[in-house]
Each structure stands twice: as structure tokens, then as C-alpha cells.
Design goal:
The protein has about 110 residues and is of the alpha+beta class. The protein has a domain at about 65-110. It has four helices and four strands; from the N terminus they run ββββαααα. The protein has helices at about 40-55, 65-75, 85-95, 100-110, and strands at about 5, 10-15, 25-30, 30-35. It has a four-stranded mixed beta sheet with strand order 1-2-4-3, covered by helices on one side. Helix 2 packs antiparallel against helix 3. The chain is globular and about 40 Å long. About 25% of the residues are buried.
Length: about 110
């Protein structure tokens, strides 16, 4: 197994184990797996850490997958100098089995 980081809300493993195909990282409650090639991608790390905080906050459990992902991608976007909102909107609208348009997700990301 690769590098491990311990944080306030969970533990992060840099490993291909635990990361579903088509993903760069994945949070299982307080446990995060990120592909080793993304070890320096602070935005991805912060995205997954949002999910660990969501896990520990029962008030957020019922907000739903769309809300969870919008919150995580908004945090991730803060770590890059370019605007990735359209790419993130496309990812959320097409990869999470949600009945939502790219345009609607883009609006949520920019709100």
C-alpha cells in the first residue's frame, strides 16, 4: 500500500485499491482512497475530505447525492486557477445516476 495520511475526519490511503473504475478517488465514510498518481492533487484530496465531513454530520445524510457532490466539487474547484465548473457539472450529471441536467448542475456549482 502507498502513502497514508491521518486527518481530523478520516484516513487517506494513496492506493489503487478501493478506487472504483473511472474515479480518481473515493470516500467510504471516514476512509478515503486516492490513486497514487494524484498524491499532489490538493483539490482532489479536499474533495474527498468533504465527503468524510459529510459522513460525520448526520444533518447532511438526507441532503442527497447531488448536494453532496456539488459541495465536494465546489471545494475542489477552490484549489485550481482555472474554471472547471462545466467539466464538474458534466461529471455530476452523467456519472452519478442523477436525473439532472448539466446546466442545472453548473448553476448549483456557481451559486
Amino acid at each position: 500500500m502507498g502513502k497514508i495520511r491521518f486527518g481530523k475526519y478520516g484516513i487517506v490511503f494513496y492506493s489503487s485499491f478501493g478506487v472504483p473504475r473511472k474515479n480518481s478517488g473515493f470516500a467510504y465514510g471516514p476512509i478515503v482512497f486516492i490513486l497514487p498518481e494524484y498524491i499532489d492533487d490538493r483539490g482532489l484530496l479536499e474533495h474527498e475530505l468533504v465527503h468524510t465531513r459529510q459522513f460525520w454530520n448526520p444533518l447532511k445524510w438526507f441532503k442527497g447525492k447531488l448536494w453532496w457532490e456539488v459541495e465536494a466539487f465546489k471545494e475542489q474547484a477552490k484549489w485550481y486557477s482555472d474554471d472547471r465548473s462545466h467539466a464538474y457539472a458534466r461529471l455530476i450529471a452523467t456519472n452519478y445516476n442523477l436525473d439532472v441536467s448539466v446546466g442545472k448542475v453548473e448553476e448549483l456549482l456557481k451559486s
